[in-house]
Specification:
Elements: H1 10-33, H2 46-53, H3 58-76, H4 83-114, H5 121-128, H6 136-145, H7 149-168, H8 172-195, H9 202-211, H10 213-231, H11 236-243, H12 246-266, H13 273-289, H14 298-305, H15 307-327, H16 330-333, H17 336-392
Helix pairs in contact: 1-2, 1-3, 1-14, 1-15, 1-17, 3-10, 3-13, 4-15, 4-17, 5-6, 6-7, 6-9, 7-10, 8-9, 8-10, 10-11, 10-13, 11-13, 12-13, 15-17
């Protein structure tokens, strides 16, 4: 018996909201400590710096949520005419419109207005066609086309292979097996590949080996496992995370939170990213059972709803925050920790405002255009079948 999915999955939007906030926090830390936003070298408190730096794992939270929701959406549309063509149309029109607007702002505008150099043609082409996920130069160079473009390249690479993953991973046991297999490959084979770079730039190769899809695939699989636990064949786990004991659920939620708070302070190994993936999946399961209002509330859910626009906008808003803080001479009045907090608050407020606008003006119309294209293709297929039936009759 299938467990009925909820129509309103507010905890999904809440997790997206937390993800974009975490990513913004990590980039604010880089602005202070690496890019000298204060006008001079500055060092935050070590504990705060480590937490802020690991806000970058918000990208992995996006991956977990993405895999869960993609399986949920594909399961609902199973058997739809032209289902996989429709899947790709939905994905492209979900991502491309806002991404191309960001390309105009971050890449074309500086070239036209300020005479800045353009990235290499191959990097631009691969980024705009979302094929940048399989080359070290293209994937990491994508950040020069659109900041944060590397993660969108990984996400789109997952979209490319998603139909195969969906058809092969049909239940929770297979999801566990796939997760274990790729974890073993990445944990033990990854260091071997890093130690034997096929390109001259060993540092570039090591960075690429961390971010490319095969290394991130276990993160997506954590989300797929969470999907089957919540919406697969009813079992003990499914029943618990829908109606189990709330005290046990709170204990599990606390355990996941403990991992997220402890790991940044004691683990530097890049493979710790899989601990984050597991913790994020457990958090998702626990929030489905009990959507704690201090996390799952209208404000955080709104931030999650606009999170894709927010991801692309927040880089610009961090620069706006820097200029605003310069105007009030914040660097001379605040220490690095306080300056970092001020940067986060100003940039987050600006991001929410601007992303709310771009979501309405760019994302929603883009998705509507994709839906209309799907409807037209469906109408053509229907008309074609009727014509064949008429000829046969």
């Amino acid at each position: 018996m299938q467990a009925k999915p909820r129509l309103q999955l507010d905890f999904i939007d809440a997790l997206r909201g937390l993800a974009i906030i975490a990513v913004l926090v990590s980039h604010a830390q880089r602005n202070v400590e690496i890019y000298q936003a204060m006008g001079h070298p500055a060092t935050m408190s070590p504990w705060l710096s480590r937490y802020a730096e690991q806000g970058a794992r918000g990208v992995q939270l996006f991956f977990v949520v993405s895999a869960l929701t993609l399986f949920l959406s594909a399961g609902k549309r199973l058997g739809e005419s032209g289902e996989w063509l429709n899947f790709y149309i939905r994905r492209v029109f979900r991502i491309a419109p806002m991404f191309y607007v960001a390309f105009g702002v971050y890449c074309l505008a500086p070239f036209v207005l300020k005479g800045h150099d353009l990235p290499q043609p191959g990097t631009i082409l691969s980024t705009l066609t979302f094929t940048n996920g399989w080359s070290p130069a293209w994937l990491l160079g994508a950040n020069d086309v659109v900041p944060g473009g590397w993660s969108i390249g990984v996400e789109m690479s997952f979209y490319i292979v998603f139909p195969l993953v969906f058809l092969l991973v049909r239940d929770l046991p297979r999801a566990w097996i796939a997760l274990l297999l790729f974890l073993l490959l990445d944990i033990f084979l990854g260091p071997v590949l890093i130690a034997n770079p096929p390109i001259a730039d060993a540092d570039l190769w090591e960075r690429f080996m961390f971010v490319w899809l095969p290394n991130q695939l276990p993160i997506f699989l954590f989300g797929i496992c969470a999907y089957f636990i919540l919406f697969g064949e009813s079992g003990a786990l499914t029943r618990f995370f829908h109606a189990g004991d709330r005290r046990v659920n709170a204990t599990l939620f606390t355990a996941a939170g403990t991992v997220l708070f402890v790991v940044p302070q004691i683990v530097a190994d890049s493979r710790a990213v899989y601990l984050y993936g597991a913790a994020f999946a457990l958090v998702a399961l626990c929030l489905n059972r009990q959507p704690y209002r201090w996390l799952v509330n209208p404000l955080v859910c709104h931030v999650g709803k606009i999170s894709f626009s927010g991801y692309l906008v927040h880089f610009f808003m961090l620069q706006v925050a820097r200029k605003l803080l310069d105007k009030v001479h914040a660097a001379s009045r605040l220490g690095p920790d306080a300056y970092f907090v001020a940067t986060v608050l100003v940039a987050l407020a600006g991001t929410v405002i601007v992303a709310s606008i771009t979501y309405r003006l760019v994302e929603v119309p883009g998705q509507a255009l994709g839906k209309r294209l799907i409807q037209r293709l469906a109408a053509r297929r229907h008309a074609g079948r009727r014509a064949l039936e008429s000829e046969a009759g």
